[in-house]
Amino acid sequence: MEDSPLFQRAAVIGVGLIGGSLGWALRHHGLAGEVVGVEPDMATLERARQRGLIDRGVTDPAAGVTGADLVVIAVPVGSFEAVLARAAAAIEPGALVTDVGSVKLSVQAEAERLLEGGPVFVGGHPIAGTEESGVEAALGDLFQGALCVVSVTEATPEWAVARLTTLWRAVGSQVVTMAPAEHDRVLAATSHLPHILAFALIQTFAALPERDRLEKFAAGGFRDLTRIAASDAVMWRDIALANRDPLLAMLDDFENQLGMLRQAIEHADGGALEHYFGEARMVRRGLSGRGKQ
Ligand code: NAP
User: Is 289 exposed, middle or buried (0-12, 13-18, 19+ CB in 10 A)?
Assistant: First the structure.
């Protein structure tokens, strides 16, 4: 007799880069008997089916989650609440509901309110992705070798954490459990601030009057540093607003650092600059797996 899959039916709401890749992984690794994709656009669903990301697609969230024992919400964090509100009443009481959003505290609160007394929600955030988005951007094995945060509160049942952990491990990820607020502080520093800086660097460049003439001088360093500014605008608007306080705290820290640099440059303080750059260089070279450039 064949082993039964971890989930009988998975509903993935939003079949873009992350949802589509997860749909592919669930199917490819035999983790779900069926993967149902949910999107407003039937053509996107058909494309997701052709690409092997889902078994079938529906446009109505309530219809999509009916009969599913796993519900994954993979839309921009600003749409999470509206999407879950449309699906909530149709979610099976014993289903595990999760998400992949880049912010966890706001999503946790919205899920607890909308699912109160019903299905269990455990937030997730795969630290994997690219600056591409949409159904065509979905990749097989996107989560192989990646880190995935499973977001837990004191009220999160152990069985649900164990089930979600099993899922992420089965698609090749290493799981770390974290409280939602801790996740948001950490990601503000390691992901959200760098994206804001990349957008600002590009805008600084774009505002230069001789920009067209300068483009050919935008070499490796500039391109490395700004690659993520090609990311989706709606997704990053939502992340910046949903993680406002930790992000503002990181922006304050960054402004302090810029202030120190500015002062050293203004006062032609070569010693301070050399010390500052040298320290930063050592920290950068010590980052695991990235010691060499
Ligand atoms: P994406 O490629 O743009 O995919 C989002 C999908 O959700 C799109 O197919 C979009 O359809 C669909 N969608 C939007 N609103 C919807 C709604 N109301 N109902 C149903 N479907 C809807 O974005 P993504 O990069 O996969 O991001 C999805 C989530 O993953 C976000 O919360 C993000 O924070 C998180 N995340 C992203 C990354 C990354 O590197 N990109 C990494 C980790 C986590 P349309 O295209 O038709 O709008």
Answer: exposed
